[in-house]
Structure formats: C-alpha cells, structure tokens
Amino acid sequence: MTYYQQEVHRLQSALYPHAHQRRQVLVARQFIEQHYAEAIGLLEMAEAACCSKFHFLRLFRQYYGRTPHQYLTALRLRQARRRLLGGAPVAEACQAVGFDSVTSFTGLFRRTYGCPPRALAARRR
User: Fold this and answer.
1) Which CATH topology does 70-125 take?
2) Which of 40, 54, 55, 93 could connect to 88 by a Cys-Cys bridge, CB 3.0–4.6 Å?
3) Which segments constitute the HTH araC/xylS-type domain (predicted)?
4) What is the per-residue pLDDT across 34-49, written as a single tens digit (0 to 9) for each?
C-alpha cells in the first residue's frame, strides 16, 4: 500500500469511523421496510444486516433511538393508518400490514393516534 493510499484510508477512518456499521443498519432498515407486512423477527433483521442479533439490536438502537421491533411496529401503524384513510376496513388494514390480532392492533392504534381505527375509517367515509 502506498503512502497516499494509507493517508486516504486514515482520513476515511477518521471522517467515517463506523461506515460499515451504518451500512449494516441501513440494509436492515430497508429489509424491514420491504417486508413489514410479513412475520419478521429480530433474527431475520439481523441476518439482513449480516451480524448477530444482539449486536444488531445495539447498533439499530444506537442509530435510530429505538429497537428494531419498535421501528417495525411504528411502520406498520403508519401503513395501517394510510390504508384506513384510503377506505380499507379495520380488519383488512390490520392483516395487510402484518398484525395478527385486530384487538391488539386496535389498542395499539388508539394509544398511538388517540382514536380507535374504526373512528378514523368512519371519518373517511
């Protein structure tokens, strides 16, 4: 390796100390956004990032300030809200974004948005 290559490497390391980790987390986030409607867990997300699930959990929380599960749940709720505003029935919106139980979805939706999903769906009609 030449002196200039070493200097470029040193400067890149100083400017972007965690570029590889950032790429891992971005790849995992893209995986979550593409597969949010499926039954994905921490193991699948970590495999997408090519690291252990515990290391991935720490990295994701470090970069996004929340766990991968919290990110996935928030994404599913946003997508369900979008579907409800588009006129979809509650059960259909719930199932389409990856929630298994309409009851737990309704409670989570109410805590997040301050109203039950059926009220949002009714407002749309």
Assistant:
1) Arc Repressor Mutant, subunit A (1.10.10)
2) 93
3) 26-123
4) 999 999 999 999 999 9
